[in-house]
């Protein structure tokens, strides 16, 4: 069953393709009007945006598949592969831009219709900026690394586009046409950096990195509060990892030896429900242990 958040994430991902195509068309027109290498680099980055937005849709469709015999923990990590692909495509685009910029340095040329091209490119950048904020906000709200990565990439695109606009305007005002390929080089370097950031962030999820300190503090607090009125003694060996929208949590819960199986099970159900209320996409595993297993250090004290 597809949950409402999953449907909303998919709609946003489809919206990214539509917005990306519109921005690509505008930037391609600006490039064709001017013949600017800097505007060409901006258009090429938008082409990467469209390709990666399509990759996000594929990843989201795979990630929401239910667990099966071959993937008992689900398919949530598919989103991280999408983000890694995005980073790789960014790097390829940057290398292509550097090659074209080198040719531009060897034979700089005056630009055609620069004012019209700059105006069109500025409008496309404004669209990108608004959509980037929408992606980042909704990606964080729905815990989707693919949407967040796409939004951050678009935001770096906006920053580089502003630089391109300034550089091309200076080239037109001064007649220093070498500024055009110079701006293309700066765009390429900015793209390379953003690609590294995207890949690095995705690898943390693929490597089963723990949740943030803030989320860990929330998990500890929820466990302590949920078990405070029961006979639980402590929780230790708390471990977490994240995969897309899902947070996996497991820990050992120490109970008095005389606790019945039914009582221990009921307490685990209450703790699990409390964790899922705080983190809606949590997957919780609790291992119950007798009191002689207590470690009395580095633990969450519950009573």
TrEMBL record:
Signal peptide: none annotated. The chain crosses the membrane at residues 12-31, 43-60, 80-98, 118-136, 157-176, 182-199. Residues 213-291 form the Cation efflux protein cytoplasmic domain. Pfam families: Cation_efflux, ZT_dimer. Residues 16-207 form the Cation efflux protein transmembrane domain. It is a multi-pass membrane protein. It comes from the Bacteria. GO terms for biological process: intracellular zinc ion homeostasis. Belongs to the cation diffusion facilitator (CDF) transporter (TC 2.A.4) family. This is Protein p34. It comes from Roseovarius tolerans.
């Amino acid at each position: 069953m597809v949950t409402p958040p999953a449907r909303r994430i998919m709609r946003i991902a489809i919206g990214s393709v539509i917005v990306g195509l519109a921005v690509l068309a505008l930037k391609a027109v600006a490039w064709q009007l001017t013949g600017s290498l800097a505007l060409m680099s901006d258009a090429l980055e938008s082409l990467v945006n469209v390709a990666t937005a399509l990759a996000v849709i594929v990843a989201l469709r795979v990630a929401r598949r239910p667990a099966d015999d071959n993937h008992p923990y689900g398919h949530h990590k598919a989103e991280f592969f999408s983000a890694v692909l995005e980073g790789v495509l960014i790097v390829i685009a940057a290398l292509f831009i550097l090659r074209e910029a080198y040719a531009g340095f060897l034979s700089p040329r005056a630009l055609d219709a620069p004012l019209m091209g700059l105006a069109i490119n500025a409008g496309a950048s404004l669209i990108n900026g608004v959509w980037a904020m929408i992606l980042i906000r909704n990606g964080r709200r729905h815990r989707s690394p693919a949407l967040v990565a796409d939004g951050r990439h678009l935001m770096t695109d906006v920053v580089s586009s502003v630089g391109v606009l300034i550089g091309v305007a200076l080239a037109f005002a001064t007649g220093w046409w070498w500024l055009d390929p110079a701006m293309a080089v700066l765009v390429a370097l900015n793209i390379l950096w953003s690609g590294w950031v995207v890949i690095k962030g995705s690898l943390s999820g693929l490597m089963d990195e723990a949740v943030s300190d803030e989320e860990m503090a929330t998990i500890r607090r929820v466990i302590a509060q949920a078990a405070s009125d029961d006979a639980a003694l402590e929780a230790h060996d708390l471990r977490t990892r994240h995969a897309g929208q899902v947070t996996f949590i497991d820990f050992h819960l120490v109970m008095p030896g005389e606790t019945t199986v039914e009582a221990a099970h009921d307490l685990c159900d209450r703790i699990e429900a409390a964790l899922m209320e705080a983190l809606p996409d949590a997957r919780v595993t609790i291992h119950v242990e007798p009191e002689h297993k207590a470690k009395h250090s580095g633990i969450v004290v519950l009573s």
